[in-house]
C-alpha cells in the first residue's frame, strides 16, 4: 500500500498479502463461521493473490500537480468565513488550552431535540456551546460544495415521500444529524438499525464526507493556482497551510463488503450532477466484482428474522480495505493509501495492515491526518472482534514515522504540533447503548468542538415481546468491582444455580452465554465435573451443530451451552428447551425475547414446568434496562431483594 511508484508497490503487496491471508484464515470464523461470504470473481488468479492498487491514474489524481478548474466554482463557498469547514480547520488552539484539557473536568449540558430526543453535549475545552435545530433548513445556508446542492435532493429522494416537508431535502432525522455533523462535533448515535434507518443515516454521512473532501481538495487546488500565479517554489511562503501530514482525510469503518459497495455507490451518485454527464470512475468493474454479490448464492429456503436478513445482505466478507481518491468530477477506486482522500475498511482489514508491535511489516502513518472518522454499525464489531476497534483507535492521529513526500510549508500548524486528534471529528453509529462502545466515545473523542451523544432510555423492555407463558426469575449477584464480575458470576452460577439443575428432572436446559471466554470456562468446568452436556459455538462444524441439536431435543444430553455469537450469525431455532438460563444478559435486547420464544417450537403440554433464570449485577444496568425497561431496572438494582419474578404470556 505504501509505494507511489509501481515497482515498490508490488514488493510491498507481496509481503502484506502473505500476512493478511494468514490472519484471514484464523479470523474469518467469528464473523462468518462457514467462510461463505468470500470475494466475488476476480479476473486472474495471479491478481487475486496480490492486493490490487491502481497505479495508472497517479498524476491525474495528484493534489500537488493539479489546479482548480475555472468553471468548477469550488472557491465560491470557501470564500465565506461562515463556512463551518473553514471555521473548524482554521481555528487555532493555544498551547495552554491543550495542556488544560488533561486537567479540565468535562462540562456537560442536556438538551431535548424533536427527533433525536435526549442529547448530551459535552466538552473538555473551556466553553461548551449548545444549539437547537432550526425549523427550516435552507440548502444554501449549509455551505454545501458544488455539485452537492443539486445532487443531494435527487440521491436522497427515496426517503422523501409525499409533499416536501419543512425539513426540505432532508428527512427529520437526517436534518438533525446533519446539523450536528456540519458543526464538526463528535456524534454518538446508538439507535441505527439495519431495518429502520440504516440507509437514511448512510446517505447523510456520505453527504458530509463528500462535502468535507471536496472543500479540503478545493482549498489545496485553489492554493496551487495562486502559488503558480505568484510563481512560488516549494517552501517559499507560509500562507498556504491547507493540508495534513498525509493525504487520507476520511476513514469509514464498515463491517462487510456490501456496506463499502453502498458507500461508494452513494459517492458516485453525489458527484454526478446530471445523468448526461457521467463522472469518470476508474476500476469500477473490478470493484463491482470484488464487492458485489451474486443473488443466486443465498440459500432460498432459510427463514430468518427480518433484522438478520437486513444485516447479512449481499457480500458479507469482513476482510477488506480500499482507498478512494476524489478530484473534482472523477473518482479513483483502489488508489494507493497515501494517494487516497477516503479509506473504507473493516476492522480486520485495518488490523492486518496496522500490525502489532515487533512485526517487521506494519504501517499506520496513513491514519496520521484523518480529519473525519466514521464508525458505522459499531454493534457488529462486538460480535466480530472488538479488540480490532480498540487497536485502531490507539493508532489514530499519531505522528507519521516517514515524511511520505509532504511539502511541510503546506502542512497546517496544528498537524505539525501533533494536535490532529483535537481536530478529528468522530461519528459513531450503532444499534445499542453498550458500555464498550460508550467507553470508546468518551475515551478517544476529544474534538475541540465538543461531543454530542444521543441518550434515550428504553421505557419498555424486550421482555414485552416474549409470547410464551414463562416465569422469568432475575437473580442479582454481588460483585465488589467491575474487574471481579467475571469470577463472581462464575462462582455464583456454579454454587447457587447449577446445583438446582443437576437433577435429571431438569433436563432440556439451555444455557445462553454472551462471552466466548465465559463459554470456554463453563465448557471446561462441565467436562471436569462430567456433566451430561453438549455445546455449540460460532466455531462448531455443521455436523457438530446437527448432532448437538439432535441430542438436546431427544433429551440424551441434559445441558446445551450456546454462545451469543452463534445465535447472531446463524439464528437457528433450538428445539426442545424446557429450562433457560441466561448466564449474562444478551448484548442485543431482542435476543432475549427471541431465545425465550424458542420454547414454543416444541411444546408438548409441559408448559407449566418451563423455567427461565437470568443472572445480573449492578454493572449490567444498561442491558437490564433494555430487557425490562428503565423504571423496573432501577427498582431491581436498588431493591434489598436479590430475586425478582416476571411472568409473561398470561392470557
Automatic annotation (TrEMBL):
Subunit structure, interactors included: Interacts with CAPN3; the interaction is required for CAPN3 translocation to the nucleolus.
One GO term describing the cellular component: small-subunit processome
Protein name as annotated: U3 small nucleolar RNA-associated protein 25 homolog
Main localization category: nucleus
One Pfam family, short name: UTP25_NTPase-like
Compositional bias per record (Polar residues), positions renumbered to this chain: 18-27
UTP25 C-terminal domain boundaries: 462-646
Every UTP25 NTP hydrolase-like domain range: 184-452
InterPro entries: P-loop_NTPase (IPR027417), UTP25 (IPR010678), UTP25_C (IPR053939), UTP25_NTPase-like (IPR053940)
GO molecular function term, any single one: U3 snoRNA binding
Localization, UniProt: Nucleus, Nucleolus
Function: Component of the ribosomal small subunit processome for the biogenesis of ribosomes, functions in pre-ribosomal RNA (pre-rRNA) processing. Essential for embryonic development in part through the regulation of p53 pathway. Controls the expansion growth of digestive organs and liver. Also involved in the sympathetic neuronal development. Mediates, with CAPN3, the proteasome-independent degradation of p53/TP53.
Sections of the chain in a coiled coil: none
Protein family per UniProt: Belongs to the UTP25 family.
Stretches for region Disordered: 1-53
One GO-annotated biological process of the protein: embryonic organ development
Alphabetical UniProt keywords: Developmental protein, Nucleus, Phosphoprotein
Biased composition (Acidic residues): 1-10
Amino acid at each position: 500500500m505504501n509505494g507511489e511508484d509501481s515497482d515498490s508497490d508490488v514488493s510491498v503487496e507481496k509481503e502484506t498479502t502473505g500476512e493478511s491471508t494468514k490472519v484471514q484464515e484464523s479470523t474469518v470464523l467469528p464473523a462468518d463461521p462457514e467462510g461463505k461470504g468470500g470475494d466475488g470473481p476476480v479476473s486472474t488468479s495471479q491478481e487475486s493473490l496480490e492486493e490490487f492498487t491502481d497505479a495508472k491514474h497517479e498524476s491525474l489524481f495528484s493534489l500537488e500537480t493539479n489546479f482548480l478548474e475555472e468553471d468548477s466554482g469550488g472557491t465560491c463557498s470557501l470564500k465565506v468565513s461562515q463556512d463551518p469547514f473553514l471555521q473548524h480547520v482554521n481555528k487555532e488552539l493555544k498551547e495552554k488550552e491543550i495542556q488544560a484539557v488533561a486537567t479540565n473536568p468535562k462540562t456537560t449540558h442536556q438538551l431535548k431535540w424533536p427527533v433525536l430526543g435526549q442529547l448530551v453535549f459535552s466538552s473538555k475545552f473551556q466553553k461548551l456551546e449548545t444549539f437547537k435545530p432550526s425549523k427550516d433548513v435552507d440548502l444554501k445556508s449549509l455551505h454545501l460544495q458544488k455539485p452537492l446542492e443539486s445532487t443531494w435532493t435527487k440521491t436522497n429522494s427515496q426517503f422523501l415521500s409525499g409533499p416536501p416537508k419543512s425539513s426540505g431535502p432532508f428527512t427529520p432525522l437526517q436534518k438533525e444529524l446533519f446539523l450536528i455533523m456540519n458543526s464538526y462535533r463528535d456524534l454518538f448515535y446508538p439507535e441505527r438499525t439495519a431495518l429502520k434507518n440504516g440507509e437514511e443515516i448512510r446517505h447523510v454521512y456520505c453527504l458530509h464526507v463528500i462535502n468535507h473532501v471536496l472543500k479540503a481538495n478545493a482549498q489545496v487546488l485553489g492554493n496551487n493556482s495562486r502559488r503558480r500565479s505568484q510563481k512560488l517554489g516549494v517552501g517559499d511562503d507560509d500562507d498556504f497551510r491547507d493540508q495534513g501530514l498525509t493525504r487520507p482525510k476520511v476513514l469509514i469503518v464498515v463491517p462487510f463488503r456490501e456496506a463499502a459497495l453502498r458507500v461508494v455507490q452513494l459517492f458516485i451518485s453525489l458527484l454526478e450532477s446530471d445523468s448526461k454527464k457521467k463522472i469518470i470512475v476508474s476500476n469500477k468493474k473490478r470493484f463491482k466484482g470484488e464487492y458485489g454479490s451474486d443473488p443466486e448464492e443465498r440459500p432460498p429456503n432459510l427463514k430468518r428474522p427480518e433484522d438478520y436478513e437486513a444485516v447479512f445482505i449481499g457480500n458479507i466478507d469482513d476482510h477488506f480495505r480500499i482507498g478512494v481518491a476524489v478530484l473534482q468530477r472523477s473518482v479513483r477506486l483502489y488508489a494507493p493509501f497515501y494517494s487516497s482522500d477516503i479509506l473504507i475498511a473493516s476492522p480486520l482489514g485495518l488490523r492486518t495492515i496496522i500490525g502489532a508491535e515487533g512485526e517487521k511489516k506494519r504501517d499506520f502513518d496513513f491514519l496520521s491526518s484523518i480529519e473525519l472518522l466514521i464508525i458505522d454499525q459499531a454493534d457488529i464489531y462486538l460480535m466480530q472482534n472488538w479488540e480490532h476497534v480498540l487497536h485502531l483507535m490507539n493508532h489514530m492521529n499519531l505522528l507519521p514515522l516517514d515524511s511520505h513526500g509532504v511539502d511541510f510549508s503546506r502542512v497546517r500548524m496544528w498537524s505539525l504540533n501533533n494536535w490532529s486528534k483535537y481536530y478529528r471529528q468522530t461519528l459513531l453509529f450503532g444499534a445499542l447503548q453498550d458500555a464498550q462502545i460508550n467507553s470508546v466515545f468518551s475515551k478517544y473523542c476529544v474534538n475541540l468542538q465538543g461531543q454530542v451523544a444521543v441518550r434515550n432510555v428504553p421505557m419498555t423492555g424486550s421482555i414485552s415481546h416474549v409470547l410464551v407463558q414463562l416465569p422469568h426469575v432475575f437473580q442479582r449477584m454481588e460483585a465488589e468491582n467491575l474487574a471481579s464480575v467475571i469470577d463472581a458470576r462464575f462462582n455464583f452460577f456454579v454454587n447457587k444455580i447449577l446445583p438446582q439443575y443437576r437433577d435429571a428432572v431438569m433436563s432440556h436446559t439451555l444455557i445462553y452465554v454472551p462471552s466466548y471466554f465465559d463459554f470456554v470456562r463453563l465448557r471446561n468446568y462441565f467436562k471436569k465435573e462430567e456433566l451430561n452436556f453438549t455445546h455449540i459455538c460460532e466455531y462448531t462444524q455443521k455436523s457438530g451443530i446437527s448432532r448437538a441439536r439432535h441430542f438436546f431435543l431427544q433429551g440424551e444430553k441434559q445441558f446445551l451451552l450456546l454462545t451469543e455469537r452463534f445465535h447472531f450469525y446463524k439464528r437457528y431455532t433450538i428445539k426442545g428447551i424446557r429450562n433457560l438460563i441466561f448466564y449474562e444478559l444478551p448484548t442485543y435486547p431482542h435476543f432475549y425475547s427471541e431465545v425465550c420464544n424458542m420454547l414454543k417450537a416444541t411444546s408438548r403440554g409441559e408448559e407449566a414446568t418451563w423455567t427461565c433464570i437470568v443472572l445480573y449485577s449492578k454493572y449490567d444496568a444498561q442491558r437490564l434496562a433494555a430487557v425490562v425497561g428503565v423504571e423496573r431496572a432501577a427498582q431491581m438494582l436498588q431493591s434489598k431483594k436479590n430475586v425478582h419474578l416476571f411472568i409473561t404470556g398470561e392470557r
